[in-house]
Write a structure and sequence with these properties.
19% strand, 626 residues, 8-stranded mixed beta sheet, 7-stranded mixed beta sheet, single chain
Length: 626
Protein backbone atom coordinates (compact mmCIF):
# COMPACT_ATOMS: atom_id res chain seq x y z
CA UNK A 1 0.00 0.00 0.00
CA UNK A 2 2.98 2.36 0.32
CA UNK A 3 4.06 1.86 -3.31
CA UNK A 4 4.19 5.33 -4.94
CA UNK A 5 1.62 5.98 -7.68
CA UNK A 6 2.00 8.56 -10.44
CA UNK A 7 0.50 11.94 -9.49
CA UNK A 8 1.97 14.96 -11.20
CA UNK A 9 1.63 18.18 -9.24
CA UNK A 10 0.65 21.27 -11.17
CA UNK A 11 0.22 25.02 -10.91
CA UNK A 12 -2.48 26.59 -13.08
CA UNK A 13 -2.57 23.45 -15.16
CA UNK A 14 1.13 23.16 -15.96
CA UNK A 15 3.27 20.44 -14.50
CA UNK A 16 5.80 22.07 -12.19
CA UNK A 17 8.69 20.23 -13.75
CA UNK A 18 7.76 21.71 -17.12
CA UNK A 19 7.26 25.30 -16.03
CA UNK A 20 10.51 25.30 -14.13
CA UNK A 21 12.48 24.18 -17.15
CA UNK A 22 10.83 25.96 -20.09
CA UNK A 23 10.35 29.69 -20.64
CA UNK A 24 7.37 31.24 -22.40
CA UNK A 25 7.77 31.30 -26.18
CA UNK A 26 8.11 34.51 -28.12
CA UNK A 27 4.81 34.67 -30.02
CA UNK A 28 4.45 36.50 -33.27
CA UNK A 29 2.18 39.55 -33.12
CA UNK A 30 2.24 39.39 -29.34
CA UNK A 31 -0.23 41.69 -27.57
CA UNK A 32 0.48 43.71 -24.44
CA UNK A 33 -1.84 41.33 -22.57
CA UNK A 34 0.44 39.12 -20.42
CA UNK A 35 0.97 35.54 -21.51
CA UNK A 36 -0.62 32.85 -19.39
CA UNK A 37 0.21 29.28 -18.46
CA UNK A 38 -1.64 27.98 -21.52
CA UNK A 39 0.94 29.70 -23.75
CA UNK A 40 3.90 27.81 -22.31
CA UNK A 41 5.54 24.84 -24.05
CA UNK A 42 4.35 21.48 -22.79
CA UNK A 43 1.01 22.81 -21.55
CA UNK A 44 -1.38 19.86 -21.94
CA UNK A 45 -3.93 19.41 -19.11
CA UNK A 46 -5.42 16.08 -20.34
CA UNK A 47 -2.18 14.36 -19.30
CA UNK A 48 -2.33 15.61 -15.72
CA UNK A 49 -3.27 13.07 -13.06
CA UNK A 50 -3.92 13.45 -9.34
CA UNK A 51 -6.85 15.74 -8.41
CA UNK A 52 -8.62 16.88 -11.57
CA UNK A 53 -12.21 17.75 -12.50
CA UNK A 54 -12.35 21.07 -10.67
CA UNK A 55 -8.78 21.12 -9.34
CA UNK A 56 -7.22 23.50 -6.88
CA UNK A 57 -6.83 26.84 -8.61
CA UNK A 58 -10.14 26.68 -10.46
CA UNK A 59 -12.60 27.73 -7.76
CA UNK A 60 -10.81 29.84 -5.13
CA UNK A 61 -11.48 33.18 -6.85
CA UNK A 62 -15.19 32.37 -7.23
CA UNK A 63 -15.43 31.34 -3.59
CA UNK A 64 -13.67 34.56 -2.53
CA UNK A 65 -16.14 36.59 -4.62
CA UNK A 66 -19.03 34.74 -2.97
CA UNK A 67 -17.53 35.56 0.43
CA UNK A 68 -17.28 39.29 -0.30
CA UNK A 69 -13.68 39.76 -1.48
CA UNK A 70 -12.91 42.64 -3.81
CA UNK A 71 -10.01 43.23 -6.18
CA UNK A 72 -8.14 46.29 -7.34
CA UNK A 73 -9.73 47.85 -10.40
CA UNK A 74 -8.68 46.45 -13.74
CA UNK A 75 -6.28 48.67 -15.62
CA UNK A 76 -7.41 50.29 -18.87
CA UNK A 77 -7.48 49.89 -21.76
CA UNK A 78 -10.02 47.06 -21.78
CA UNK A 79 -10.02 44.69 -24.71
CA UNK A 80 -12.92 45.11 -27.15
CA UNK A 81 -15.02 42.30 -28.63
CA UNK A 82 -18.42 41.73 -30.15
CA UNK A 83 -19.26 38.95 -27.68
CA UNK A 84 -17.80 37.68 -24.42
CA UNK A 85 -18.71 34.18 -23.26
CA UNK A 86 -18.11 33.32 -19.60
CA UNK A 87 -17.58 29.56 -19.46
CA UNK A 88 -15.92 27.41 -22.12
CA UNK A 89 -17.84 24.22 -21.48
CA UNK A 90 -19.99 22.77 -24.23
CA UNK A 91 -22.72 25.38 -23.69
CA UNK A 92 -20.28 28.28 -23.93
CA UNK A 93 -18.45 26.80 -26.92
CA UNK A 94 -21.79 26.17 -28.62
CA UNK A 95 -22.86 29.76 -27.92
CA UNK A 96 -19.69 31.04 -29.57
CA UNK A 97 -20.35 28.77 -32.57
CA UNK A 98 -23.93 29.98 -33.00
CA UNK A 99 -22.97 33.64 -32.65
CA UNK A 100 -20.14 33.31 -35.15
CA UNK A 101 -22.49 31.48 -37.58
CA UNK A 102 -24.91 34.43 -37.39
CA UNK A 103 -22.13 37.03 -37.53
CA UNK A 104 -19.11 35.54 -39.35
CA UNK A 105 -16.87 38.59 -38.89
CA UNK A 106 -17.49 38.89 -35.15
CA UNK A 107 -14.74 38.91 -32.54
CA UNK A 108 -15.38 36.65 -29.56
CA UNK A 109 -13.59 36.11 -26.25
CA UNK A 110 -14.28 33.00 -24.17
CA UNK A 111 -13.18 32.98 -20.52
CA UNK A 112 -12.97 29.89 -18.34
CA UNK A 113 -11.85 29.42 -14.75
CA UNK A 114 -10.48 25.93 -15.37
CA UNK A 115 -7.10 25.02 -16.85
CA UNK A 116 -8.78 23.25 -19.79
CA UNK A 117 -11.78 23.87 -21.99
CA UNK A 118 -14.83 21.61 -22.14
CA UNK A 119 -16.28 22.14 -18.67
CA UNK A 120 -17.60 18.79 -17.42
CA UNK A 121 -16.56 17.20 -20.73
CA UNK A 122 -13.15 16.43 -19.25
CA UNK A 123 -10.57 14.23 -21.00
CA UNK A 124 -8.23 11.95 -19.01
CA UNK A 125 -5.30 10.87 -21.15
CA UNK A 126 -2.76 8.20 -20.25
CA UNK A 127 0.15 6.67 -22.16
CA UNK A 128 0.68 3.13 -20.87
CA UNK A 129 3.42 0.96 -22.35
CA UNK A 130 3.53 3.32 -25.34
CA UNK A 131 -0.19 3.04 -26.04
CA UNK A 132 -2.74 5.89 -25.79
CA UNK A 133 -5.56 5.22 -23.29
CA UNK A 134 -8.49 7.62 -22.85
CA UNK A 135 -11.23 7.94 -20.26
CA UNK A 136 -14.02 10.42 -19.71
CA UNK A 137 -13.31 12.47 -16.62
CA UNK A 138 -16.81 13.91 -16.78
CA UNK A 139 -19.61 13.77 -19.34
CA UNK A 140 -19.92 10.14 -20.41
CA UNK A 141 -21.66 10.14 -23.77
CA UNK A 142 -24.18 11.51 -26.21
CA UNK A 143 -27.38 10.46 -24.48
CA UNK A 144 -30.55 12.24 -23.42
CA UNK A 145 -34.00 11.25 -22.10
CA UNK A 146 -35.47 12.73 -25.30
CA UNK A 147 -34.25 12.60 -28.90
CA UNK A 148 -31.93 15.45 -29.81
CA UNK A 149 -33.90 18.32 -31.30
CA UNK A 150 -32.99 20.26 -34.45
CA UNK A 151 -30.58 22.65 -32.70
CA UNK A 152 -28.44 20.07 -30.89
CA UNK A 153 -28.70 17.47 -33.65
CA UNK A 154 -27.87 20.14 -36.21
CA UNK A 155 -24.74 21.16 -34.32
CA UNK A 156 -23.55 17.53 -34.16
CA UNK A 157 -24.12 17.22 -37.91
CA UNK A 158 -22.15 20.43 -38.52
CA UNK A 159 -19.29 18.98 -36.48
CA UNK A 160 -19.39 15.77 -38.55
CA UNK A 161 -20.82 13.52 -35.85
CA UNK A 162 -23.09 10.84 -37.35
CA UNK A 163 -24.30 9.23 -34.12
CA UNK A 164 -26.09 6.25 -35.66
CA UNK A 165 -23.16 5.38 -37.93
CA UNK A 166 -20.46 5.84 -35.28
CA UNK A 167 -22.38 3.83 -32.69
CA UNK A 168 -22.40 0.84 -35.03
CA UNK A 169 -18.79 1.16 -36.19
CA UNK A 170 -16.90 2.16 -33.04
CA UNK A 171 -18.55 0.66 -29.93
CA UNK A 172 -18.41 -2.96 -28.82
CA UNK A 173 -20.68 -3.03 -25.73
CA UNK A 174 -20.58 -6.84 -25.35
CA UNK A 175 -16.79 -7.16 -25.74
CA UNK A 176 -16.18 -8.32 -22.17
CA UNK A 177 -19.19 -10.65 -22.19
CA UNK A 178 -17.72 -12.34 -25.27
CA UNK A 179 -14.65 -13.06 -23.15
CA UNK A 180 -16.85 -14.60 -20.46
CA UNK A 181 -16.74 -11.64 -18.05
CA UNK A 182 -19.93 -10.67 -16.22
CA UNK A 183 -21.40 -8.12 -13.82
CA UNK A 184 -20.81 -8.46 -10.07
CA UNK A 185 -21.93 -7.12 -6.71
CA UNK A 186 -19.51 -6.50 -3.84
CA UNK A 187 -20.83 -6.79 -0.28
CA UNK A 188 -18.53 -4.97 2.16
CA UNK A 189 -17.93 -6.05 5.76
CA UNK A 190 -18.92 -2.72 7.29
CA UNK A 191 -22.38 -2.81 5.70
CA UNK A 192 -23.15 -6.51 5.28
CA UNK A 193 -20.94 -8.26 7.85
CA UNK A 194 -18.31 -9.71 5.53
CA UNK A 195 -16.52 -8.96 2.28
CA UNK A 196 -17.99 -10.95 -0.60
CA UNK A 197 -17.83 -10.53 -4.38
CA UNK A 198 -20.78 -12.11 -6.14
CA UNK A 199 -20.33 -12.54 -9.92
CA UNK A 200 -22.91 -13.41 -12.53
CA UNK A 201 -25.72 -10.87 -12.14
CA UNK A 202 -28.11 -11.39 -15.04
CA UNK A 203 -26.49 -14.66 -16.07
CA UNK A 204 -26.83 -17.00 -13.09
CA UNK A 205 -30.36 -17.77 -11.76
CA UNK A 206 -31.14 -15.28 -9.03
CA UNK A 207 -31.79 -17.85 -6.32
CA UNK A 208 -28.48 -19.57 -6.96
CA UNK A 209 -26.63 -16.25 -7.14
CA UNK A 210 -28.08 -14.97 -3.86
CA UNK A 211 -27.37 -18.22 -2.05
CA UNK A 212 -23.78 -17.08 -1.51
CA UNK A 213 -24.65 -13.50 -0.51
CA UNK A 214 -23.98 -12.44 3.12
CA UNK A 215 -27.68 -11.87 3.75
CA UNK A 216 -30.28 -13.53 5.90
CA UNK A 217 -32.63 -16.03 4.28
CA UNK A 218 -35.46 -13.51 4.66
CA UNK A 219 -33.44 -10.72 2.99
CA UNK A 220 -32.52 -13.02 0.09
CA UNK A 221 -36.18 -13.93 -0.34
CA UNK A 222 -37.22 -10.30 -0.30
CA UNK A 223 -34.68 -9.37 -2.98
CA UNK A 224 -35.93 -12.23 -5.14
CA UNK A 225 -39.48 -10.97 -4.65
CA UNK A 226 -38.53 -7.38 -5.61
CA UNK A 227 -36.58 -8.51 -8.64
CA UNK A 228 -38.92 -11.11 -10.08
CA UNK A 229 -42.32 -11.39 -8.39
CA UNK A 230 -45.38 -9.78 -9.98
CA UNK A 231 -47.07 -8.33 -6.92
CA UNK A 232 -49.44 -5.36 -6.88
CA UNK A 233 -48.34 -3.44 -3.79
CA UNK A 234 -51.11 -0.85 -4.16
CA UNK A 235 -54.20 -2.90 -5.03
CA UNK A 236 -57.49 -1.19 -5.68
CA UNK A 237 -55.98 1.96 -7.20
CA UNK A 238 -55.95 2.96 -10.85
CA UNK A 239 -52.67 3.35 -12.71
CA UNK A 240 -52.79 7.16 -12.39
CA UNK A 241 -53.65 6.95 -8.68
CA UNK A 242 -50.72 4.61 -8.10
CA UNK A 243 -48.40 6.94 -9.99
CA UNK A 244 -49.51 9.91 -7.92
CA UNK A 245 -48.88 7.93 -4.73
CA UNK A 246 -45.46 6.73 -5.92
CA UNK A 247 -44.44 10.25 -6.95
CA UNK A 248 -44.76 11.39 -3.34
CA UNK A 249 -42.63 8.75 -1.64
CA UNK A 250 -39.00 7.82 -2.14
CA UNK A 251 -37.95 4.47 -3.55
CA UNK A 252 -36.50 3.68 -0.14
CA UNK A 253 -39.83 4.46 1.53
CA UNK A 254 -41.60 2.30 -1.04
CA UNK A 255 -39.36 -0.66 -0.22
CA UNK A 256 -39.46 -0.04 3.54
CA UNK A 257 -43.08 0.91 4.13
CA UNK A 258 -44.99 -0.65 1.22
CA UNK A 259 -42.97 -3.76 0.33
CA UNK A 260 -41.83 -3.92 3.99
CA UNK A 261 -38.30 -5.23 3.57
CA UNK A 262 -35.63 -5.47 6.24
CA UNK A 263 -32.74 -2.95 6.54
CA UNK A 264 -30.18 -5.13 4.75
CA UNK A 265 -32.37 -5.03 1.63
CA UNK A 266 -32.57 -1.23 1.82
CA UNK A 267 -28.76 -1.16 2.04
CA UNK A 268 -28.54 -3.42 -1.01
CA UNK A 269 -30.61 -1.07 -3.18
CA UNK A 270 -29.57 2.26 -1.67
CA UNK A 271 -26.86 3.14 -4.22
CA UNK A 272 -28.80 2.07 -7.32
CA UNK A 273 -29.79 5.69 -8.03
CA UNK A 274 -26.46 7.36 -7.29
CA UNK A 275 -24.90 7.14 -10.74
CA UNK A 276 -27.89 8.80 -12.37
CA UNK A 277 -29.05 11.29 -9.72
CA UNK A 278 -26.04 11.62 -7.40
CA UNK A 279 -28.16 10.73 -4.36
CA UNK A 280 -29.41 7.46 -2.89
CA UNK A 281 -32.85 5.90 -3.00
CA UNK A 282 -33.96 8.01 -0.03
CA UNK A 283 -34.00 11.17 -2.21
CA UNK A 284 -35.48 9.87 -5.50
CA UNK A 285 -39.19 9.21 -5.93
CA UNK A 286 -40.47 5.68 -6.36
CA UNK A 287 -42.20 6.78 -9.55
CA UNK A 288 -38.96 8.12 -11.02
CA UNK A 289 -37.31 4.81 -10.19
CA UNK A 290 -40.12 2.97 -11.98
CA UNK A 291 -39.53 5.18 -15.02
CA UNK A 292 -35.85 4.37 -14.88
CA UNK A 293 -36.43 0.62 -14.78
CA UNK A 294 -35.68 -0.25 -11.15
CA UNK A 295 -37.44 -3.40 -9.89
CA UNK A 296 -40.52 -3.86 -7.70
CA UNK A 297 -43.18 -2.48 -10.03
CA UNK A 298 -43.61 -5.33 -12.51
CA UNK A 299 -46.91 -6.49 -10.97
CA UNK A 300 -48.45 -3.08 -10.37
CA UNK A 301 -50.03 -2.62 -13.82
CA UNK A 302 -48.62 0.87 -14.32
CA UNK A 303 -49.47 2.11 -17.80
CA UNK A 304 -46.77 3.39 -20.11
CA UNK A 305 -46.14 7.12 -20.06
CA UNK A 306 -45.17 9.80 -17.59
CA UNK A 307 -47.25 12.13 -15.48
CA UNK A 308 -46.57 15.76 -14.61
CA UNK A 309 -45.03 14.84 -11.26
CA UNK A 310 -42.03 13.00 -12.72
CA UNK A 311 -38.44 14.14 -12.93
CA UNK A 312 -36.98 15.24 -16.26
CA UNK A 313 -34.89 12.11 -16.77
CA UNK A 314 -37.42 9.31 -16.15
CA UNK A 315 -40.26 11.25 -17.76
CA UNK A 316 -38.26 11.67 -20.94
CA UNK A 317 -37.24 8.03 -21.18
CA UNK A 318 -40.79 6.94 -20.35
CA UNK A 319 -42.36 9.12 -23.04
CA UNK A 320 -39.84 8.84 -25.87
CA UNK A 321 -37.36 6.08 -25.10
CA UNK A 322 -34.54 8.61 -25.14
CA UNK A 323 -32.05 9.71 -27.76
CA UNK A 324 -29.49 7.78 -29.74
CA UNK A 325 -26.42 7.02 -27.66
CA UNK A 326 -22.73 7.25 -28.48
CA UNK A 327 -19.65 7.00 -26.27
CA UNK A 328 -16.33 8.38 -27.45
CA UNK A 329 -13.16 7.11 -25.73
CA UNK A 330 -12.89 10.40 -23.80
CA UNK A 331 -16.64 10.91 -23.48
CA UNK A 332 -18.01 14.20 -24.77
CA UNK A 333 -14.58 15.81 -24.55
CA UNK A 334 -14.53 14.83 -28.24
CA UNK A 335 -17.50 17.17 -28.79
CA UNK A 336 -15.66 19.98 -27.00
CA UNK A 337 -12.57 19.38 -29.15
CA UNK A 338 -14.66 19.45 -32.32
CA UNK A 339 -16.20 22.76 -31.24
CA UNK A 340 -12.78 24.27 -30.55
CA UNK A 341 -11.52 23.04 -33.92
CA UNK A 342 -14.58 24.67 -35.52
CA UNK A 343 -13.86 27.97 -33.76
CA UNK A 344 -10.02 28.00 -33.71
CA UNK A 345 -8.82 25.54 -36.39
CA UNK A 346 -5.09 26.01 -35.66
CA UNK A 347 -5.58 24.76 -32.09
CA UNK A 348 -6.82 21.28 -33.03
CA UNK A 349 -4.98 19.86 -36.06
CA UNK A 350 -6.58 17.58 -38.60
CA UNK A 351 -10.14 17.01 -39.72
CA UNK A 352 -12.91 14.55 -39.05
CA UNK A 353 -14.24 12.89 -35.91
CA UNK A 354 -11.91 9.90 -36.14
CA UNK A 355 -8.88 12.19 -36.23
CA UNK A 356 -9.88 14.53 -33.40
CA UNK A 357 -9.82 11.73 -30.82
CA UNK A 358 -6.06 11.29 -31.21
CA UNK A 359 -5.15 14.90 -32.06
CA UNK A 360 -2.99 16.80 -29.62
CA UNK A 361 -4.42 20.25 -28.93
CA UNK A 362 -2.00 23.15 -29.32
CA UNK A 363 -3.09 25.27 -26.36
CA UNK A 364 -0.81 28.13 -27.36
CA UNK A 365 -3.09 28.75 -30.34
CA UNK A 366 -6.21 29.31 -28.22
CA UNK A 367 -5.51 32.93 -27.28
CA UNK A 368 -3.50 34.49 -30.09
CA UNK A 369 -3.37 38.26 -30.45
CA UNK A 370 -5.44 39.46 -33.40
CA UNK A 371 -7.36 36.21 -33.78
CA UNK A 372 -11.13 36.66 -34.24
CA UNK A 373 -11.92 34.09 -31.55
CA UNK A 374 -9.85 33.76 -28.39
CA UNK A 375 -10.22 31.22 -25.58
CA UNK A 376 -8.57 32.28 -22.32
CA UNK A 377 -8.15 29.65 -19.59
CA UNK A 378 -7.42 30.07 -15.86
CA UNK A 379 -9.54 33.24 -15.97
CA UNK A 380 -12.40 33.63 -13.48
CA UNK A 381 -15.06 36.28 -14.08
CA UNK A 382 -15.81 38.41 -11.00
CA UNK A 383 -18.05 41.16 -12.43
CA UNK A 384 -20.37 41.44 -15.42
CA UNK A 385 -22.15 44.76 -15.79
CA UNK A 386 -23.87 46.90 -18.35
CA UNK A 387 -21.54 49.66 -19.49
CA UNK A 388 -21.56 52.57 -19.01
CA UNK A 389 -24.50 51.90 -16.65
CA UNK A 390 -27.07 49.17 -15.97
CA UNK A 391 -29.81 51.41 -17.39
CA UNK A 392 -28.19 52.12 -20.76
CA UNK A 393 -27.44 48.52 -21.73
CA UNK A 394 -25.25 49.80 -24.58
CA UNK A 395 -22.50 47.27 -23.94
CA UNK A 396 -21.21 44.85 -21.33
CA UNK A 397 -17.98 45.00 -19.34
CA UNK A 398 -16.58 41.77 -17.90
CA UNK A 399 -13.92 41.87 -15.20
CA UNK A 400 -11.99 38.69 -14.54
CA UNK A 401 -9.05 37.55 -12.44
CA UNK A 402 -6.03 35.77 -13.87
CA UNK A 403 -2.88 35.03 -11.89
CA UNK A 404 -4.24 37.18 -9.06
CA UNK A 405 -4.74 40.31 -11.18
CA UNK A 406 -7.96 41.83 -12.48
CA UNK A 407 -8.45 42.52 -16.18
CA UNK A 408 -11.41 43.91 -18.12
CA UNK A 409 -12.94 43.29 -21.51
CA UNK A 410 -15.93 44.96 -23.19
CA UNK A 411 -18.35 43.69 -25.79
CA UNK A 412 -21.73 44.35 -27.33
CA UNK A 413 -23.13 41.45 -25.31
CA UNK A 414 -22.22 38.63 -22.97
CA UNK A 415 -23.40 35.04 -22.56
CA UNK A 416 -22.94 33.66 -19.05
CA UNK A 417 -22.49 29.95 -19.69
CA UNK A 418 -21.05 29.35 -16.23
CA UNK A 419 -22.59 27.70 -13.17
CA UNK A 420 -25.86 29.60 -12.83
CA UNK A 421 -25.62 29.72 -9.05
CA UNK A 422 -22.68 32.15 -9.46
CA UNK A 423 -24.53 34.59 -11.72
CA UNK A 424 -26.02 36.71 -8.86
CA UNK A 425 -22.50 37.35 -7.57
CA UNK A 426 -21.38 38.43 -11.05
CA UNK A 427 -24.45 40.60 -11.67
CA UNK A 428 -25.73 41.98 -8.34
CA UNK A 429 -28.08 44.35 -10.22
CA UNK A 430 -30.32 41.46 -11.26
CA UNK A 431 -33.89 41.56 -9.91
CA UNK A 432 -34.21 39.93 -6.49
CA UNK A 433 -36.62 37.25 -7.75
CA UNK A 434 -34.16 36.24 -10.46
CA UNK A 435 -31.23 36.13 -8.03
CA UNK A 436 -33.23 34.00 -5.62
CA UNK A 437 -34.08 31.57 -8.40
CA UNK A 438 -30.45 31.34 -9.51
CA UNK A 439 -29.23 30.76 -5.95
CA UNK A 440 -31.52 27.72 -5.73
CA UNK A 441 -29.92 25.95 -8.70
CA UNK A 442 -27.67 23.70 -6.62
CA UNK A 443 -25.66 21.26 -8.73
CA UNK A 444 -25.01 17.66 -7.73
CA UNK A 445 -21.45 16.82 -6.59
CA UNK A 446 -19.85 13.62 -7.81
CA UNK A 447 -16.51 11.96 -8.49
CA UNK A 448 -15.35 10.10 -11.59
CA UNK A 449 -12.08 8.33 -10.85
CA UNK A 450 -9.80 6.95 -13.57
CA UNK A 451 -7.35 4.26 -12.43
CA UNK A 452 -4.59 3.06 -14.75
CA UNK A 453 -3.90 -0.66 -14.30
CA UNK A 454 -0.85 -2.52 -15.55
CA UNK A 455 -3.15 -5.35 -16.66
CA UNK A 456 -6.63 -6.73 -15.99
CA UNK A 457 -5.72 -10.31 -15.19
CA UNK A 458 -7.54 -10.20 -11.84
CA UNK A 459 -10.78 -9.26 -13.60
CA UNK A 460 -10.29 -12.05 -16.11
CA UNK A 461 -9.61 -14.60 -13.35
CA UNK A 462 -12.75 -13.52 -11.48
CA UNK A 463 -14.73 -13.29 -14.74
CA UNK A 464 -16.06 -9.84 -13.88
CA UNK A 465 -15.95 -6.56 -15.83
CA UNK A 466 -18.10 -4.26 -13.67
CA UNK A 467 -19.06 -4.23 -10.00
CA UNK A 468 -21.90 -2.58 -8.08
CA UNK A 469 -20.66 -1.86 -4.54
CA UNK A 470 -23.52 -0.31 -2.51
CA UNK A 471 -21.57 0.10 0.74
CA UNK A 472 -18.12 0.96 -0.59
CA UNK A 473 -16.34 4.31 -0.98
CA UNK A 474 -16.90 4.20 -4.74
CA UNK A 475 -20.28 2.59 -5.39
CA UNK A 476 -19.40 1.25 -8.82
CA UNK A 477 -16.39 0.33 -10.92
CA UNK A 478 -15.98 -0.97 -14.45
CA UNK A 479 -13.32 -1.70 -17.02
CA UNK A 480 -13.02 0.98 -19.69
CA UNK A 481 -15.59 0.75 -22.47
CA UNK A 482 -14.28 -0.98 -25.58
CA UNK A 483 -14.21 1.61 -28.37
CA UNK A 484 -12.13 1.70 -31.55
CA UNK A 485 -12.15 4.87 -33.63
CA UNK A 486 -9.61 6.07 -36.16
CA UNK A 487 -6.12 5.34 -34.85
CA UNK A 488 -7.41 4.72 -31.33
CA UNK A 489 -7.74 1.08 -30.25
CA UNK A 490 -8.86 -0.41 -26.93
CA UNK A 491 -6.92 -3.24 -25.25
CA UNK A 492 -7.99 -6.75 -26.20
CA UNK A 493 -6.17 -9.11 -23.84
CA UNK A 494 -5.95 -9.21 -20.01
CA UNK A 495 -2.16 -8.85 -20.19
CA UNK A 496 -2.43 -5.32 -21.57
CA UNK A 497 -2.76 -2.13 -19.49
CA UNK A 498 -6.27 -0.75 -19.13
CA UNK A 499 -8.19 2.05 -17.43
CA UNK A 500 -10.77 1.49 -14.70
CA UNK A 501 -13.71 3.85 -14.15
CA UNK A 502 -14.99 4.33 -10.58
CA UNK A 503 -17.91 6.50 -9.38
CA UNK A 504 -18.46 8.14 -5.99
CA UNK A 505 -21.33 10.42 -4.99
CA UNK A 506 -20.76 12.09 -1.59
CA UNK A 507 -24.42 12.19 -0.52
CA UNK A 508 -25.81 12.39 3.02
CA UNK A 509 -28.87 10.14 3.50
CA UNK A 510 -31.78 11.62 5.40
CA UNK A 511 -31.55 15.14 4.00
CA UNK A 512 -33.37 16.67 1.04
CA UNK A 513 -31.63 16.39 -2.32
CA UNK A 514 -30.21 19.92 -2.33
CA UNK A 515 -29.11 19.68 1.30
CA UNK A 516 -27.32 16.45 0.44
CA UNK A 517 -25.70 18.25 -2.49
CA UNK A 518 -24.44 21.07 -0.27
CA UNK A 519 -23.07 18.66 2.35
CA UNK A 520 -21.47 16.50 -0.32
CA UNK A 521 -19.78 19.49 -1.94
CA UNK A 522 -18.28 20.53 1.38
CA UNK A 523 -16.99 16.99 1.88
CA UNK A 524 -15.41 16.88 -1.57
CA UNK A 525 -13.58 20.16 -1.10
CA UNK A 526 -12.21 18.97 2.24
CA UNK A 527 -11.07 15.54 0.99
CA UNK A 528 -7.41 15.23 0.00
CA UNK A 529 -6.11 13.24 -2.91
CA UNK A 530 -4.27 11.04 -0.41
CA UNK A 531 -7.61 10.07 1.17
CA UNK A 532 -9.01 9.16 -2.23
CA UNK A 533 -5.88 7.18 -3.09
CA UNK A 534 -5.99 5.22 0.17
CA UNK A 535 -9.66 4.35 -0.27
CA UNK A 536 -9.17 3.36 -3.92
CA UNK A 537 -6.32 1.02 -3.09
CA UNK A 538 -8.18 -0.54 -0.19
CA UNK A 539 -11.42 -0.98 -2.12
CA UNK A 540 -9.77 -2.62 -5.12
CA UNK A 541 -7.66 -4.91 -2.93
CA UNK A 542 -10.76 -6.07 -1.05
CA UNK A 543 -13.02 -6.39 -4.09
CA UNK A 544 -10.52 -8.23 -6.30
CA UNK A 545 -8.62 -10.17 -3.62
CA UNK A 546 -9.60 -13.59 -4.93
CA UNK A 547 -8.30 -12.63 -8.35
CA UNK A 548 -4.83 -11.91 -7.00
CA UNK A 549 -5.08 -8.12 -7.35
CA UNK A 550 -2.36 -6.12 -5.58
CA UNK A 551 -2.85 -2.33 -5.59
CA UNK A 552 0.84 -1.61 -4.96
CA UNK A 553 1.81 -3.70 -7.96
CA UNK A 554 -1.12 -3.30 -10.34
CA UNK A 555 -2.01 0.42 -10.18
CA UNK A 556 0.22 2.72 -12.22
CA UNK A 557 -1.67 6.06 -11.99
CA UNK A 558 -4.80 7.62 -10.53
CA UNK A 559 -6.82 10.61 -11.66
CA UNK A 560 -9.64 11.76 -9.37
CA UNK A 561 -12.11 13.96 -11.22
CA UNK A 562 -13.69 15.89 -8.38
CA UNK A 563 -16.83 17.78 -9.37
CA UNK A 564 -18.17 19.83 -6.43
CA UNK A 565 -20.62 21.31 -8.96
CA UNK A 566 -21.51 18.33 -11.13
CA UNK A 567 -24.88 17.43 -12.61
CA UNK A 568 -27.24 20.29 -13.44
CA UNK A 569 -30.24 20.36 -11.08
CA UNK A 570 -33.41 18.73 -12.38
CA UNK A 571 -36.98 18.80 -11.10
CA UNK A 572 -37.42 16.40 -8.17
CA UNK A 573 -41.08 15.75 -7.25
CA UNK A 574 -40.14 14.87 -3.66
CA UNK A 575 -38.71 18.29 -2.84
CA UNK A 576 -39.49 20.80 -5.60
CA UNK A 577 -42.66 22.85 -5.91
CA UNK A 578 -45.15 21.46 -8.39
CA UNK A 579 -45.47 24.60 -10.52
CA UNK A 580 -45.82 25.26 -14.25
CA UNK A 581 -42.53 25.15 -16.14
CA UNK A 582 -42.52 28.94 -16.58
CA UNK A 583 -42.32 29.34 -12.81
CA UNK A 584 -39.48 26.88 -12.23
CA UNK A 585 -36.22 28.39 -10.92
CA UNK A 586 -34.16 27.60 -14.01
CA UNK A 587 -36.63 29.44 -16.26
CA UNK A 588 -36.94 32.48 -13.99
CA UNK A 589 -33.18 32.48 -13.48
CA UNK A 590 -32.22 32.51 -17.16
CA UNK A 591 -34.16 35.67 -18.03
CA UNK A 592 -32.29 38.11 -20.26
CA UNK A 593 -30.90 41.18 -18.48
CA UNK A 594 -30.06 43.99 -20.87
CA UNK A 595 -27.18 42.76 -23.04
CA UNK A 596 -26.51 39.80 -20.72
CA UNK A 597 -27.99 36.36 -21.37
CA UNK A 598 -27.61 33.10 -19.46
CA UNK A 599 -26.81 29.61 -20.79
CA UNK A 600 -25.40 26.33 -19.36
CA UNK A 601 -27.35 23.10 -18.81
CA UNK A 602 -28.46 24.57 -15.45
CA UNK A 603 -30.65 26.99 -17.40
CA UNK A 604 -32.33 24.03 -19.09
CA UNK A 605 -33.00 22.12 -15.89
CA UNK A 606 -31.47 19.04 -17.49
CA UNK A 607 -28.06 17.45 -16.93
CA UNK A 608 -27.42 16.53 -20.56
CA UNK A 609 -25.27 17.75 -23.43
CA UNK A 610 -28.21 18.59 -25.69
CA UNK A 611 -29.56 20.86 -22.95
CA UNK A 612 -26.20 22.64 -22.75
CA UNK A 613 -26.23 23.15 -26.55
CA UNK A 614 -29.86 24.28 -26.64
CA UNK A 615 -29.32 26.82 -23.87
CA UNK A 616 -26.28 28.25 -25.64
CA UNK A 617 -28.40 28.64 -28.76
CA UNK A 618 -31.28 30.30 -26.87
CA UNK A 619 -28.93 32.75 -25.13
CA UNK A 620 -27.40 33.82 -28.45
CA UNK A 621 -30.80 34.24 -30.10
CA UNK A 622 -31.90 36.47 -27.24
CA UNK A 623 -28.86 38.68 -27.78
CA UNK A 624 -29.26 38.86 -31.53
CA UNK A 625 -32.96 39.76 -31.25
CA UNK A 626 -32.28 42.76 -29.03
Amino acid sequence: MDQPIDRRDFLNGVALAITAALPFPALANASPFPLGAQDSPGYYPPLLSGMRGSPDGSFEVAHALRDGKSWAAAADPAEEYDLIVVGAGISGLAAAHFYRAASPRSRILLLDNHDDFGGHAKRNEFHLDGQLHLMNGGTLEIDSPRPYGPVAAGLLATLGVDVAKLEKSTEFPKFYEHLGLQTGVFFDEETFGTDKLMVGVGHIPLEKLLSSAPLSARARQQIMQIQAAKIDYLPGLSSDEKKQRLSRISYEAFLRDVVMVEPAVLNFYHARTMGEWGVGTDAVSALDCWGFGLPGFQGMHLKKGSIRRMGYTPAGYEDTGGSLRLHFPDGNATIARLLVRNLIPLAVPGSGVENVVTSKVDYAQLDRSGAPIRLRLNSTAIRVRQAPSPASAAAVEVTYVRDGKAFAARAGGAVLACYNVMVPYLCPELPDQQKEALHSLVKTPLVYTSVALRNWQAFDKLKVHSVYAPGSYHTSLRLNAHVNIGAYHSPRTPDEPILLHMVRTPCKPGLSEHEQNRAGRAELLATSFETFERNIREQLNRTLREGGFDAARDISAITVNRWPHGYAPEYNPLFDADVPEALRPNVIGRAKFGRITIANSDAGGAAYTDSAINQGHRAVRELLRS
